[in-house]
Design goal:
It comes from Taklimakanibacter albus. This is ABC transporter permease. The protein is 74% helix and 2% strand. The chain is mainly alpha-helical. It has two domains: 2-259, ABC transporter involved in vitamin B12 uptake, BtuC, CATH 1.10.3470.10; 263-314, no CATH class. A two-stranded antiparallel sheet has the order 1-2. The longest helix is centred in the middle third of the chain and has 27 residues, at 176-202. The chain starts with a helix and ends in a 7-residue tail after the last helix. 43% of the residues are buried.
Length: 314
């Protein structure tokens, strides 16, 4: 039970980040790496706002705004400068490091003497662990409900259509470029929300907070999509939230078994590798050479290699 509580305590505040990655990849079909930089910008903006004396809720909103602006810039680079979204995301993530430093004015900021959303909950009589679980659950649950509602509106449906087949969406008169920009703003705002919550939870902001964080969201996405193999919105979103919990439980178990903390990112990468391999190959991974399963796996691998191409970014 303690392992589950620790997983929920740490994992739920990463829920908005995982949902932002889901929104960019599964709804928009855009591999946006800006999400990692937006996570750091959201944390930096929130930390500075708290030190300046703003209340935690307003600081959180400012953090979300910072990430949304980063998403807007990526969208404009992609749509109006015709820059591949992967390249635009790499450039923005690189720039986000300097932007976070500029916002903070230093490499790290301590928030131990500042009131946060978590200390608000603790003031109601809850322990630090339960405060983190309550805040994470409320944040992830609220984001999930809003996304489910939004993606069933006319605008949300047009955004989903743009991600599924942009040519068909255009033939129906949908302004796909505008949908992509708005979608990137939403996704990066969600990533920034997680960054803001993580900073308030741990009591400090360090510029390195964003490094590799997108892999955490990808792990949650892969786990969730493996559990709920469906294109439907509600089970997919619930699957992503379940995925972030399962991922954090796996990491917690690894640490409990004595794995050094600096191996956490390696464990994260291995979990993602394993899930992707099983999803892509199924039983073909252990099929005996010459059997039908092995031949089917070989055919599918050949088709993948024939269709997979590096997009020209020049």
């Amino acid at each position: 039970m303690s392992i589950l509580l620790i997983g929920a305590q740490v994992g739920l505040i990463y829920g908005p980040l995982a949902l932002g990655i889901y929104f960019a990849l599964n709804i928009l079909s855009l591999p946006d790496l800006t999400l990692e930089g937006s996570f750091g910008i959201g944390g930096a903006s929130t930390a500075v706002a708290l030190v300046a004396g703003l209340d935690p809720a307003t600081a959180l909103l400012l953090g979300i705004l910072g990430g949304a602006i980063a998403g807007l810039i990526t969208g404009l680079l992609h749509v109006y400068l015709r820059m591949n979204v992967l390249l635009a995301g790499i450039l923005m993530t690189t720039a986000a490091w300097s932007i976070s430093l500029a916002i903070m004015g230093a490499g790290n900021i301590s928030l131990l003497s500042q009131a946060t959303i978590f200390t608000w909950i603790e003031g109601l009589g809850f322990s630090g662990q339960w405060a983190a679980i309550i805040v994470g659950a409320l944040a992830s649950g609220l984001v999930a409900l809003v996304l489910i509602w939004f993606l069933h509106t006319n605008y949300g449906l047009s955004m989903r259509a743009s991600g599924l087949n942009i040519q068909t969406a255009r033939s129906f008169g949908i302004r796909t470029e505008a949908r992509q920009i708005v979608g990137l703003i939403i996704a990066n705002g969600l990533a920034a929300a997680s960054g803001a919550l993580v900073v308030q939870s741990q009591g400090f902001m360090d510029v390195s907070i964003q490094t590799g964080v997108i892999v955490v969201g990808l792990a949650a996405l892969m786990i969730g999509m493996s559990v709920f193999k469906t294109p439907k919105i509600i089970p997919s979103i619930l699957g992503v939230l379940l995925g972030i919990l399962v991922y954090r439980v796996v990491v917690t178990i690894a640490l409990k078994l004595g794995l050094p903390p600096y191996f956490v990112k390696l464990v994260t990468a291995l979990v993602v590798f394993g899930i992707i391999a099983v999803r892509a190959n199924g039983l073909g991974l252990i099929a005996i050479p010459g059997t039908k399963a092995a031949k089917k796996n070989a055919r599918e691998r050949l088709e993948y290699l024939e269709n997979d191409r590096v997009v020209n970014i020049t």
